[in-house]
Design a protein that fits this description.
By secondary structure, the protein is an alpha/beta fold. The chain is 40% helix and 15% strand. A hairpin with a 4-residue loop joins strand 5 (161-171) and strand 6. Helix 11 packs across helix 12 and helix 15 (471-492) runs antiparallel to helix 16 (502-526). Bound molecules: 5'-O-[(L-methionyl)-sulphamoyl]adenosine. GO terms for molecular function: ATP binding; methionine-tRNA ligase activity.
Length: 597
């Protein structure tokens, strides 16, 4: 609980991918990227059914929700670029349960109205955020009700449910039952003692009622075996260890229904109108509903890859796999876990009034600017902090200045008056052996060969980081190459070279060609994270939509003695700055300069 409620620090163990792509045949080969083999998501005939959690509709979306969705979106887009294979990305809203029933009552509205309204807010947000979902599920839909009732019948048919009196603590905001050891006492706003969940701090209530129980305890051993046989099924690795530790403790049976007189807003238990199915069973089955359960899920199941926040890990890594095993289905192939966003060091909460609205962020930083910030700064194994100045500084320095500036410098009419993808000259930039003697290499310097090696390596490195759910590291490595390319450009001062001198023209064109080739690779690799900006960049370079897959990542083919289809091609139209510099709001400028306390 401590690990999960504060930050999960991996030490160094989670900081490196399992296999680093250094060398890996990429250096100097100019070969197109081959995805490393991995179960499910890579290789020929790959299939993946990526999912975000489905979101509660008791309040509007905030940046934490958006982060869950963006992680899944970036993984989905990345896999789509890897080559043949088919994937889906499902998201949606979790609309039943006591929490929603109470929120609707408090708002004086019918639950169905509240659900439709807030579900619409999530859907609109994801459209606006360019989340490329292929399905948006609402748990109030008839297809889902049917799936949940079939799932229930399957559990019952296998003798894994029984009726009993449940007595214990229930936490409505978290929609979960807690043991005595999971609660503590704290004073409430009026200073009265009140029982709360140790992990979330939310208030709990004593509940005593007759419920259906699921024989979860029977699955302790199968769960352990499944985890021990699939060491990479939960990543990052520290979360895998957390789940293993949970499985060393007692695993009591789970209450999976509530009395209907307390909870009307939910799916009734088939054949027992006095009971409503527990909202977490209802919610988890959404992953099967979107796969086509109960008739057509076999084509997709178990290629399920769930992205979840650390607060809902137990539901996904223990309850869900056990429920699946109980009905004779395989557990999901992959569970990706992320940590939480705080705001200026504090947990986001309505009472603190610090909940950050993602739509306001899009207005302030642009959609791609904010996508970039969350995915570049978000480290799944630990909590990350949001504040405005940090977004502005990062986005200006990496997108506007480093990337946008680089493009600007090498396509400016003053330096490239014909507006074409210039020619590469082998005599200026000779194919070097491993180490470089300047005489033999035309005008290229040792650092230039290092740049070529870095960019050659980059696609494999980026793919490896994506596969290991380290999108922030993928971006870090792209940025390092962008900076290296700026260094290359700066070093050779092409603006000082004279086009009228044939030898200088040759070298000038070669410098521009190498820079544009670097930008082409960065544009392709950045598509999963900043799709609109990457499109703008690639269109400016005149790279056609069908030339933007990972199979098109052969870097600098002319250097490797192969033809370059882009050489001599007219560049795309000028559509203004690649990425606008963000303004620091006036108040903050004063704060930064120390003019305001
Ligand atoms: N409805 C359940 C999930 C059911 S999935 C079968 C739920 N919903 S939620 O709306 O509360 O949370 C959805 C996701 O948002 C979770 O992954 C959660 O971790 C994530 N986040 C909520 N607050 C967050 C932050 N402050 N930061 C990052 N993500 C956070 O749980």
């Amino acid at each position: 609980a401590v690990l999960l409620s504060t930050s999960l620090r991996p030490g160094r163990s989670g900081a490196r991918p399992r296999s680093t792509p250094q060398g890996a045949g990429a250096r100097g080969t100019g070969s197109p990227l081959l995805a490393p083999p991995r179960r499910g998501s890579s290789g020929p005939g790959r299939r993946w059914l990526l999912s975000t959690p489905i979101f509660y509709v008791n309040g509007p979306p905030h940046i934490g929700h958006l982060y869950s969705a963006l992680l899944a979106d970036a993984l989905h887009r990345h896999r789509g670029l890897l080559g043949p294979g088919s994937g889906r990305l499902a998201t949606g809203t979790d609309e039943h349960g006591l929490k929603i029933q109470q929120a609707a009552a408090a708002a004086g509205t019918a639950p169905s109205e509240l659900c439709s309204h807030v579900s619409g807010l999530f859907r609109d947000l994801f459209f606006r955020a360019a989340v490329s979902f292929t399905d948006f599920i609402r748990t109030t839909e008839p297809r889902h009700r049917r799936a949940v009732q079939c799932f229930w019948a399957a559990l019952q048919g296998r003798g894994l449910l029984y009726k009993d009196f449940y007595e214990g603590w229930y936490c409505t905001p978290d929609e979960c039952f807690l043991t005595q050891a999971q609660i503590t006492e704290r004073p409430d706003a009026q200073g009265r003692p009140c029982k709360v969940s140790l992990e979330s701090g939310h208030q709990v209530h004593w509940t005593k009622e007759e419920n259906y129980m699921f024989k979860l305890s029977e699955f302790q051993e199968p769960l352990r075996k499944w985890l021990q046989g699939n060491r990479h099924v939960i990543s990052p690795e520290p979360f895998y260890q957390v789940v293993l530790r949970w499985l060393e403790e007692d695993l009591p049976d789970l209450s999976v229904s509530r009395e209907r007189n307390r909870l009307q807003w939910g799916i009734p238990v088939p054949g027992d109108s006095t009971q409503t199915i527990y909202v977490w069973v209802d919610a988890l089955v959404n992953y099967l509903t979107v796969a086509g359960y109960p008739d057509a899920h076999h084509a997709w199941w178990p290629a399920a890859h769930h992205v979840v926040g650390k607060d809902i890990l137990k539901f996904h890594a223990i309850y869900w796999p056990a429920l699946l095993m109980a009905v004779g289905l395989d557990p999901p192939e992959q569970i990706y876990v992320h940590s939480h966003w705080t705001v200026r060091g504090q947990k986001m909460s309505k009472s603190l009034g610090n909940v950050v609205d993602p739509v306001a962020c899009f207005k302030q930083y642009t959609v791609d600017g904010f996508r970039y910030f969350l995915l570049r700064q978000g480290v799944p194994e630990r909590d990350c902090d949001y504040y405005e100045e940090k977004v502005i500084k990062l986005v200006n320095s990496e997108l506007a200045d480093a990337l946008g500036g680089l493009l600007n410098r090498c396509i400016a009419p003053s330096i490239n008056p014909s507006g074409i993808y210039p020619h590469f000259s082998e005599s200026c930039f000779r194919k070097g052996s491993d180490h470089i003697d300047v005489e033999a290499s035309g005008r290229a310097l040792a650092e230039d060969y290092e740049l070529v090696a870095s960019v050659d390596r980059l696609p494999l490195q980026v793919t490896d980081y994506f596969e290991h759910f380290q999108i922030y590291k993928a971006l870090e490595s792209v940025v390092a190459c962008v900076r290296q390319t700026n260094g290359f450009f700066q070093r050779h001062t092409p603006w000082k070279l004279c086009r009228d001198n044939p030898a200088e023209k040759c070298w000038l064109d070669t410098v521009l060609h190498v820079t544009l080739e670097c930008l082409r690779i960065y544009g392709i690799l950045l598509q999963p994270v900043i799709p609109a900006t990457a499109d703008k960049l690639l269109s400016r370079l005149s790279i056609k939509p069908e030339e933007r897959a990972f199979t098109d990542l052969t870097f600098l083919p002319r250097y490797h003695g192969k033809p370059c289809p882009f050489e001599g091609r007219k560049l795309g139209p000028d559509m203004g700055a690649l990425f606008p510099r963000l303004e620091t709001p006036r108040g903050h400028q004063m704060e930064i300069k120390g003019l305001r306390p």
